[in-house]
Amino acid sequence: MKREFTAVFQKRDKWYVAYVEEIPGVNTQGRTLKEARANLKEALQLIIEANRQLAAKRRGRVRREPIAVEA
Asked: I need a labelling partner for 56 at 20 to 30 A (CA). Which of 6, 10, 13, 48 fits?
């Protein structure tokens, strides 16, 4: 399933600092904008996978379902 998020980039001296607006904890940096984009994509994928693994370890019955919002 493909999802879209908002990437925010800010040039700070010789580095680009980046984060995903919708998901706390997804942040990174890169010497170029291209590197920052690639690093941010990887960080987002890792956070999503880690959250899935944590949810899978929950004991008892859990219900998973899609949720949509307009922002």
From this structure: 6
